[in-house]
Specification:
The chain is an alpha+beta fold. The chain has five domains: 2-61, Helix Hairpins; 88-275, DNA ligase/mRNA capping enzyme (D-amino Acid Aminotransferase, Chain A, domain 1, 2-Layer Sandwich), CATH 3.30.470; 278-375, Nucleic acid-binding proteins (OB fold (Dihydrolipoamide Acetyltransferase, E2P)), CATH 2.40.50; 462-531, Orthogonal Bundle (DNA polymerase, domain 1); 542-632, BRCT domain (Rossmann fold, 3-Layer(aba) Sandwich). It contains 21 helices and 19 strands. The strands form six sheets. The protein has a five-stranded antiparallel beta sheet with strand order 11-10-9-12-13, with helices on one face. The protein has a four-stranded antiparallel beta sheet with strand order 4-3-6-7. Strands 17-16-18-19 form a four-stranded mixed beta sheet, covered by helices on one side. A hairpin with a 2-residue loop joins strand 10 and strand 11 (311-317). The longest helix is centred in the first third of the chain and has 23 residues, at 2-24. The protein is globular. 31% of the residues are buried.
Length: 632
């Protein structure tokens, strides 16, 4: 018994640590299966030996803890978790216990478990008063400002007759698969660390300090609890009542009079879960090309409006000419489109494919020449003064991933461009309060705030400025490498191709792109920025006597204890150099478990596969662990 008691305590300590990493830090340390195995071993050990159960055992409470950055909210009643059922025999044994208490008339309601973040919404007087996370089940975090941005959460409702003045609605905030994949593609394109799974992305998005970030993440909800239940006399009536009040409830639900129906429901969705994306048929009314920041033309199908998953769809990205013709899309084509979440849909198939669509020879915005640069599939407008490219470059410079100038959004930049006040980012620093005040929807105070925000961006970190310039192939990670290697904007501008290629992580193609940028319009832009008083701050030099002095470390795959920028900063603080790819100069390779692999040059890996609905009530935990190997 002593050995079993010791094992139980070991399991409790491990599970507590992993629950804290998962629920509080949003940085899981083990896989879903590994966690389930630990939890199941502890639960079965305690069931066989009840004397080993302690009040603070993970089996006796809900995991999680409220973070310090949000105010605390005490729940009116505990937000309890569900017990896992790992085998069909366990669910049948549970059914026997239920019927032993309520009799043979038991009816079950089944719906799909969503891999998201539990949320509690308090309504009073018909309006949303507070939103809180589950936290430890008793006390959660106040995330009202963020949840108010979710379009599926009603801000005001007509309560059902019989409900009190104040009541709670509980459910799940989750990341639809396609929204999650799009977010990770955008983050990787910007050189940022992608999220490892939709649950962590949802948790991180709801717990943002800036509600605008949450609003841009395309989150969704399903609600399933009403407290008190009011007129409802069953869970099925609760779901119907929630739906009548305007809440989003899971459409894939059912009710059964026997456990056989429950088991069959589970088997059905295990086989059909890949088909959960909703589809609809419509007609392509036009194919229009839009011009991005780098001049790349993206064809978009304008569709005859069709409702898909409760949302009216009018557009679908076709990505490039090759993909248009692979699918055989053309004006007038009957197509099947699908979507999941609030993202632009895709064309799944064409009823009668007809290849042969051609990208226009002239830019639809400026009329400039459009060329296809082999071996790339993209077509690009090569006019550097194209208005569409100018707007997108200005947006990048002012964006959160750039210099984070609050107030310089799409509408404001359009006005500045149309009035001839701004042509490139250096013009921001020459704006006056009077000029900004003359713009639509600006008053004196808001104009002063914008000028103050612009002035605050005059001394950015060098890496952030390099990333904000929109240099082809240079995202945040490469910008960090260039900043660490050259130390000043002028030195990066003047570097030769050979000097650029000497930087670990910069290959021949990237070096050519960087050099071409600074030989062209980039050189003049740097001069104008410096003349306008922009003085980027050089990165701190690596510690000369640190334990990694003179050593080069490469990180590959997804790091799950800390982000890659944090890991690279740690290497530099220890005197080492963090490179983007393996070379003859590499001393150590640190490999995360997902998408890890040695590379001769940096590449943008595809977004990780979206997690699927869990077969257990607990949210899925992705794989974890980091291994370090000596190169050579």
């Amino acid at each position: 018994m002593k050995a079993k008691s010791k094992r139980a305590e070991e399991l409790r300590e491990q599970i507590r640590r992993h629950e804290y990493a998962y629920h509080v830090l949003d940085q899981p340390e083990i896989t879903d299966a590994q966690y389930d195995a630990l939890y199941l071993e502890l639960r079965r050990l305690e069931e066989a030996h009840p004397e080993l159960v302690t009040p603070d055992s993970p089996t006796q409470r809900v995991g999680g803890e409220a973070g310090e950055q949000f105010s605390k909210v005490k729940h009116r009643s505990p937000m309890l978790s569900l017990q896992n059922a790992f085998e069909e025999a366990e669910i049948r044994a549970w059914d026997k216990r239920v019927r032993g208490v309520v009799g043979e008339a038991a009816t079950y309601v089944c719906e799909l478990k969503i891999d998201g973040l539990a949320i509690s919404l308090t309504y009073a007087g018909g309006g949303l008063r507070r939103a809180a996370t589950r936290g430890d089940g008793m006390v959660g975090e106040d995330v009202t400002a963020n949840v108010r941005t979710l379009k599926s959460v009603p801000l005001s409702i007509s309560p059902l007759p019989g409900l009190p003045e104040e009541f709670e609605v509980r459910g799940e905030v989750y990341f639809p698969f396609r929204s999650f994949e799009k977010l990770n593609r955008d983050m990787e394109a910007a050189g940022k660390q992608p999220f490892m799974n939709p649950r962590n992305a949802a948790a991180g998005s709801v717990r943002q300090l800036d509600p605008k970030v949450t609003a841009g993440r395309n989150l969704q909800t399903f609600m399933y609890t009403l407290d008190p239940a009011g007129p409802a006399r069953s869970q099925w009536e609760v779901l119907e009542g929630l739906q009548r009040m305007g809440f989003r409830v899971n459409p894939n639900r059912d009710r059964f009079d026997s456990i056989e129906g429950v088991v069959e429901y589970h088997h059905h969705w295990q086989e059909q879960r890949e088909t959960l994306d909703q589809q609809a048929e419509t007609v392509v009314e036009d194919i229009v090309c839009y011009v991005g920041r780098t001049g790349v033309l993206t064809p978009v199908a304008h569709l005859r409006p069709v409702i898909v998953g409760g949302v009216t769809v009018r557009n679908a990205s076709l990505h490039n000419e090759d993909l248009v013709n692979q699918k055989g899309v053309y004006v007038g084509a009957a197509v099947v489109v699908q979507r999941a979440g609030d993202v632009i849909p895709e064309v799944v198939s064409v009823k009668e494919p007809r290849p042969g669509w051609k990208m226009p020879a002239q830019c639809p915005i400026c009329g400039g020449q459009v060329v296809r640069e082999e071996p790339y599939v993209a077509h690009r407008c090569i006019n550097p003064f194209c208005p569409a490219q100018r707007l997108q470059n200005l947006l990048l410079y002012a964006s959160r991933g750039g210099l984070n100038i609050d107030g310089l959004g799409y509408s404001t930049l359009n006005q500045l461009i149309n009035r001839g006040l701004v042509e490139d980012p250096s013009d921001f620093y020459r704006l006056t309060v009077e000029q900004v005040e003359s713009l639509d929807r600006f008053a004196r105070k808001s104009a002063e705030n914008l000028i103050q925000a612009i002035d605050g961006s005059r001394t950015p970190p060098l890496a952030r400025l390099l990333s904000a310039l929109g240099i082809p192939q240079v995202g945040e990670a490469t910008a960090e490498l260039l900043a660490a290697e050259f130390g000043s904007l002028e030195r990066v501008r003047d570097a030769s191709e050979e000097q650029l290629q000497a930087v670990d992580g910069v290959g021949p193609s990237m070096a050519r792109e960087i050099r071409a940028y600074f030989q062209g319009r980039g050189s003049e832009l740097v001069r104008r920025l410096l003349d306008a008083g922009v003085r980027p701050e050089a990165p701190e030099a690596p510690a000369a006597d640190g334990p990694l002095a003179g050593k080069t470390v490469v990180f590959t795959g997804t790091l799950e204890r800390i982000s890659r920028p944090e890991a690279e900063a740690l290497v530099r603080s220890l005197g080492g150099k963090a490179a983007g790819s393996v070379s003859a100069r590499t001393d150590f390779v640190v490999a995360g478990p997902r998408r890890a692999g040695c590379r001769s040059r940096p590449t943008h890996a595809s977004a990780p596969a979206a997690a699927r609905p869990s077969r257990t009530p607990r949210a899925r935990r992705p794989g974890l662990g980091v291994s370090a190997t000596r190169s050579g």
